[in-house]
From TrEMBL:
HAMAP family, sorted: PurN (MF_01930)
Protein name in UniProt: Phosphoribosylglycinamide formyltransferase
Stretches assigned to the Formyl transferase N-terminal domain: 4-180
Residues that bind N(1)-(5-phospho-beta-D-ribosyl)glycinamide: G12, T13, N14
Gene: purN
Its EC number(s): 2.1.2.2
Length: 194
C-alpha cells in the first residue's frame, strides 16, 4: 500500500479531509505523519486527535536546509513515497524537489495558472473573475506551478462575499484532493482522472 506524508502550515482542513478519507477506507493508502513548519498550526492538533503522528519542521532554528534534511529523514524512516502539500506555505528547495520529482503534490485555491501565490482566492475575487476554482498539481521548482492533475471550477455568484466564496472553494478542495490522490496512488493515468 502507498505511504504518504502531509505538510501543513495552518488550519489543516485539507489534511483533515484527506485523513478522514484514509480513516474511512476511501483513500487506500497509509498516512505516515503530518508535519508543519509552524508550531502553532491548528492542523497538528487535529492530526494528533485523529491518531496520526504530528511532526515539527524547525525552519526557525535550522533554516530551510536543516528543516528539509529533517523532512527527508522522516520520509526515509517512514518509507514515504509521496509528499502531499496541504496549505504548506514554504517553497521547497530545487534540490529537494528534484530528488522527488513527480512525487510531491499540491493543492491551490484557484484555476492555475491564474492567481498563484499566498492569496489565490482573494486575488481572483479582487480581479472580478466570474469563475474560479481549485487545482491539484505536481510540484516543480516554481510557485504553484507544475503539471496539473485535476481542477474543479467554482462559479462566483452575484450574491457572493469573499467569505461565502472562500467557503465553497474550501468545500471543493476537500472533495477534490483525496479523490485525485486516490487516482494518483493507484496509478490511474491523468487523462482518465476527473
Ligand atoms: C487551502 O485553501 C490551500 O489551497 C491553500 O492554503 C489553504 C490551506 O487551508 N494553499 C495555497 O494557497 C498554496 N499556494 P487548510 O490549512 O485549511 O487546508
Amino acid at each position: 500500500m502507498t505511504s504518504f506524508a502531509v505538510l501543513i502550515s495552518g488550519r489543516g482542513t485539507n489534511m483533515a479531509a484527506i485523513a478522514r478519507a484514509v480513516a474511512r477506507g476511501k483513500l487506500d493508502a497509509r498516512l505516515k505523519f503530518v508535519a508543519s513548519d509552524n508550531p502553532g498550526a491548528a492542523g497538528l492538533d487535529i492530526a494528533r486527535k485523529m491518531g496520526f503522528p504530528a511532526e515539527m519542521l524547525d525552519y526557525g532554528k535550522e533554516g530551510r536546509r536543516g528543516a528539509e534534511q529533517q523532512l527527508a529523514l522522516l520520509c526515509s524512516r517512514n518509507n514515504v513515497e509521496w509528499i502531499v502539500l496541504a496549505g504548506f506555505m514554504r517553497l521547497l528547495s530545487p534540490e529537494f524537489v528534484a530528488a522527488r520529482r513527480g512525487r510531491i503534490v499540491n493543492i491551490h485555491p484557484s484555476l492555475l495558472p491564474s492567481f498563484p501565490g499566498r492569496d489565490g482566492i482573494g486575488d481572483a475575487w479582487r480581479y472580478g473573475v466570474k469563475i474560479t476554482g481549485v487545482t491539484v498539481h505536481l510540484v516543480d521548482e516554481g510557485v504553484d506551478s507544475g503539471p496539473i492533475l485535476a481542477q474543479k471550477a467554482v462559479p462566483v455568484r452575484p450574491c457572493d462575499t469573499l467569505e461565502s466564496l472562500e467557503k465553497r472553494i474550501h468545500r471543493a478542495e476537500h472533495g477534490l484532493y483525496w479523490k485525485t490522490l486516490a487516482g494518483l496512488f493507484s496509478g490511474v493515468p491523468a487523462s482518465e482522472r476527473s
